[in-house]
Amino acid sequence: PYIPSPEIIDADFPLRLTTGRHLYQFNTGTMTQRSAAAALRRADELEMAPADAAALGIADGESVAIESRHGRAELPVRVHERIRPGELFTTFHFPPAFVNQVTSPVRDRRVGAPEY
């Protein structure tokens, strides 16, 4: 049966962060970054909808701190039309960004994979 995620949007944490991989780093840079593909994208970036960036007074390229119930990370912002208001996206390819510090430790109850 369906079990809802304990991670919810609320007044303290009003935006939903999704993490994933980027085309240039999908399988070639995730462990060591010793690949020519590393030059195509040199850091994790926080993608944000224009409406959210405007509401928060954040400019494209500005470095921001993101914080969740689980941790904190600092990333440069990239404002993109493809991101829906209320949602954020970032990759997790570069260990210095500590993106995994802000993600939930909740796991799928059957297979143990991180929650989607």
How would you describe this structure in keywords?
single chain, globular, 5 strands, 116 residues, 5-stranded mixed sheet, mainly beta
Largest sheet: 5 strands, mixed
Strands, total number: 5
In sequence order, what are the helices and strands, one letter per element?
EEHEEE
pLDDT averaged residue by residue: 83
- Into which percent range does the helicity of residues fall? under 10%
Radius of gyration: 15 Å
N-to-C CA distance: 16 Å
Structural class: mainly beta
Strand fraction equals 15-25%
Shape: globular
Question: Could you explain the architecture of this structure?
Answer:
By secondary structure, this protein is mostly beta strands. 6% of the residues lie in helices and 22% in strands. It is built from one helix and five strands, in the order ββαβββ. It has one helix spanning 50-56, and strands spanning 16-20, 46-48, 63-67, 72-79, 87-91. The longest helix has 7 residues, at 50-56. The radius of gyration is 15 Å and the shape is globular. The two termini are 16 Å apart.
In summary, what is this structure?
The chain is 6% helix and 22% strand. The protein is built from one helix and five strands; from the N terminus they run ββαβββ.
